[in-house]
Structure formats: C-alpha cells, structure tokens
Write a sequence for this structure.
C-alpha cells in the first residue's frame, strides 16, 4: 500500500472522535489538526504491524479513543495529559500505574530499592524521549489498538527482561500478570501474617490526616522527602522528622501487638518487608481519591512526573 493510499481524509467520524475525547477529558488539550496528524501517524504505525493492510474504518473500529488521545496529548507535552496518565489505574481498583510499575520493578530487582527506583524513573524519562538516536520514544510506539496502561506495563517489563537476560538466572514474568504484588513464600507462619495485618490496620486507623498524607505521598506516589517538602511548603527537615517519628511509632505499635500475641521472632523486619506496602496501598484511607481530598483541603494536588 502506498503512502498516498494511507492518507486520512478528515470526515464526520474523525470530528466525532475528537469532540468525544475532549468532552471526556476537558483539561487535556489537543488541537483538531494535531489530532488528525496523530491519527495519520498511528494508523501508519499500525499498518506496519499487520500482515494484511487494513482500512481506515477498520482501524477506527478497534481504536481505544481515550487511551489514544491521552498518549497523543502526552507526546505534545500537555501537562494535564501527564497528570491523567500519572493517576491512571492498573489491574485492580485504585492501583495506580506507578504502583504497578513499582511492583513489577520490585520483582525484577528484588531487595534493590535503588535499582527499582531508577528503573521506574528511567521509564518515565523515555516515554517521550527516544532512548537511542533514530529510535522512537515509548509513547510514540503506541498505536491505539490496545489499552494504554497494560501496554505500558508490558513495555516496561519487556525492556527490563531483555536487560536481565544478559544474566543466566533471569526469568520472564507471566504475560497475564499485570504487576500486582506477589504472594510471598517465606518461613513465617500464616497466623503471624494475619496477626501482623490486623495490627497494621489497627495502627493505620488511629493516625490523623497529616500522617496519612505523608504516608500516601511517600508510599503511593513515591515522592522523595524533598518533593513532599516542596509540595507542602515546609522544610525538608520537618518531613524527615515526621517520617522518622511515624516509622518508629508504627514499629513500636506492631512489635507490642505481636509480642502480646506470643510472637517469639527476633524482629518483625520480614513481615514489614513483605506485608506492609500491600496493606497500606489496599487501605481505603490511602486511596488516590482519599489522598486527593486531603490535598484539596490544602489547595494542592498531586504533581505529575517531570
């Protein structure tokens, strides 16, 4: 099929698509002509992937319009589009895309927090900037014919798997696993996991909104102490002291509850390491919506990725 044959002629369906996306995402701006340009680009991109050429109508029939629109606006550098992407949910209710990428990174690079953070940060950086000269940025490879968030998670996984395959013990993760936290198989009895979970939920129910917000910004949104301080307009040392106090308070409470239940382990590190993050991310008080309400009271909102 020649290039001329693939040129899209704007028509009522393209116009309807544009206004549908704008109505659904009013804060995400993409000019009509740029919308047509991106449709032309992704249509041509998809044509190269299929064995038999498809028609323009067939392409539109299978388009995920909002995902396509969001990806196109991100490529245009629209800040609101990035905010939408940053807050996208993945796999289960209230699991943010960032949570999913972090969980996948944790499984790819176990017990290496620094490498996990770098993996996620580098991925965001390459969404709109090509990794090597002559290659396409990640977002520019999205053809609109599949859901965006699972596709991004899969791209993240595949790139890092390709790096890990340079090492003999690397193994690919299951294709149908969208990066949700994995069950652990340590030596700790299931009873103690349940006792720990109950104690952790009880502790979480007792902390106030300021402490919830600090937890949410650090754990759900993976903001650094400096980023939290900048968002809340306080000194970084204040955030450091609050974080240390909250950590010590939590560990003291958990240790006391486990001891009263008969815990004889040397410490609770393994339980904290394997159980705590999942418990916090699953708690409704630390949901994205709940944290958003707390921030709204302060006249603030979660920043998108830079």
């Amino acid at each position: 099929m020649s290039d001329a044959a693939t040129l899209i002629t704007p028509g009522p369906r393209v116009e309807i698509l544009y206004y549908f996306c704008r109505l659904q995402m009013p804060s995400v701006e993409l000019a009509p002509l740029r919308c047509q340009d991106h449709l032309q680009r992704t249509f041509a991109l998809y044509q190269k992937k299929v064995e038999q050429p498809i028609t323009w109508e067939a392409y539109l029939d299978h388009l995920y319009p909002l995902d396509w629109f969001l990806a196109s606006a991100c490529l245009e550098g629209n800040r609101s589009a990035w905010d939408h992407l940053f807050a996208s949910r993945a796999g289960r209710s209230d699991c943010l895309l960032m949570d999913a990428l972090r969980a996948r990174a944790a499984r790819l690079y176990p017990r290496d927090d620094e490498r996990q953070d770098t993996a996620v940060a580098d991925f965001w950086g390459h969404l709109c900037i090509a990794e090597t000269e002559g290659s396409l940025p990640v977002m520019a490879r999205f053809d609109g014919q599949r859901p965006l968030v699972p596709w991004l998670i899969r791209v993240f996984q595949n790139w890092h798997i390709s790096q890990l395959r340079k090492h003999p013990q690397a193994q690919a993760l299951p294709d149908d696993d969208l990066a949700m936290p994995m069950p652990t198989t340590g030596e700790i009895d299931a009873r103690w996991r349940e006792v720990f979970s109950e104690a952790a939920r009880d502790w979480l129910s007792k902390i106030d909104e300021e402490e919830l917000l600090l937890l949410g910004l650090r754990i759900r949104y993976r903001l650094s102490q400096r980023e939290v301080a900048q968002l809340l307009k306080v000194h970084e040392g204040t955030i450091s002291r609050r974080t240390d106090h909250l950590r010590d308070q939590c560990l003291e409470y958990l240790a006391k509850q486990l001891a009263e239940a008969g815990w004889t382990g040397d410490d609770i590190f393994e339980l904290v390491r394997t159980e705590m993050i999942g418990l916090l991310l699953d708690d409704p008080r630390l949901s994205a919506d709940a944290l958003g309400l707390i921030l709204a009271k302060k006249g603030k909102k979660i920043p998108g990725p830079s």
